[in-house]
Amino acid sequence: MKQQYDLLRILYRVWFYSLTAIPLLILFPILITFAVVPKGYRTVYWIARNLWAPVVLCGMGTPINYIDTHRLATDKPYMICPNHQSMLDLFIILRCSTAPVLFVGKKELQTIPFFGSIYKRVSVLVDRSNKESRANVYQLVKEKLHLGYSICVFPEGTVPERQVLLAPFKPGAFKMAIEHSLAIIPISIYNAKHRLPYELNHGTPGKIAIKIHPTILTDEYSYEDYPKLQESCRSLLERDLSVVSA
């Protein structure tokens, strides 16, 4: 019986790769065209949010269940800081905001066929092992903010093991938020690790519960205060995840 379940979960993962790849292949000429056009990211984001993400989430049987959620305003950019649980997190954040959100992601993502060609042109990539690359992120983010985009950083910097509630936060998102006077929006993703974790033989359809928290203003923080802001955001998410997971 266990072998049968393992096989079903592997097939479920293969189905996920198919759902992510097929729309990209179909839409690739349009996406790559707008990805290289100045200010074309708004179109790329609209397609990703309204066409790609719904296909993946609905096709996987993982609709989003918003719990006591605050609406994301569209009149100004934010620093969005979710916890990181699964391969579905990107699609979840896409569905959270109607206004364009720019993702700060690992440089390794640019090697993914088709997806990488687009992603490296419309996001900010960072090589976490390279100090110069990490420093360049600040300038790249500044340039994108002038276009009115919000920024999304997964502050854990990795997807922790399934038994880990919340990994330690890295400081980059909070330094950038203070430097650019961006309000922070924490987002709790509660159970995506049970839907599609990175482990090969785990995963199951079902609703993914999330909560968009009220904004954390950064106006009163100086740059040297970023550890306080970092801890405030992490404590909020940790308390919230602990209550829901209990």
Quote the beta fraction.
5-15%
Classified by CATH, the class is Alpha Beta
Mean pLDDT, nearest integer?
88
Order of helices and strands: HHEEHEHEHEHEHEH
Helix content: 40-55%
Give the strand order, joined by hyphens, for the main sheet: 1-7-6-2-5-3-4
Number of domains: 1
Characterize the overall form.
globular
What about the largest sheet? Answer: 7 strands, mixed
CATH architecture: 3-Layer(aba) Sandwich
**Discrete helix count:** 8
Question: How many strands in all?
Answer: 7
CATH topology: Glycerol-3-phosphate (1)-acyltransferase
Rg estimate, integer Å: 18 Å
Oligomeric state as shown: single chain
Q: Unreliable runs, pLDDT <50, ≥5 residues?
A: none
Give a description of the structure.
The model has no long low-confidence stretch (mean pLDDT 88). The two termini are 29 Å apart. The protein is built from eight helices and seven strands, in the order ααββαβαβαβαβαβα. The chain is an alpha/beta fold and 246 residues long. α1 crosses α4 and α6 crosses α8 (226-245). It has a seven-stranded mixed sheet with strand order 1-7-6-2-5-3-4, with helices on both faces. α4 (115-122) links the parallel β3 (101-106) and β4. The protein is 47% helix and 12% strand. The longest helix is centred in the N-terminal third of the chain and has 34 residues, at 2-35. The protein has a single domain (2-245), classed as Glycerol-3-phosphate (1)-acyltransferase (3-Layer(aba) Sandwich), CATH 3.40.1130.
Detail the topology: elements first, then pairings.
Blueprint: H1 2-35, H2 41-59, E1 64-66, E2 79-82, H3 89-96, E3 101-106, H4 115-122, E4 124-126, H5 131-145, E5 150-152, H6 172-179, E6 184-189, H7 192-195, E7 208-212, H8 226-245
Parallel strand pairs: 1-7, 2-5, 2-6, 3-4, 3-5
Antiparallel strand pairs: 6-7
Helix pairs in contact: 1-2, 1-4, 2-3, 6-8
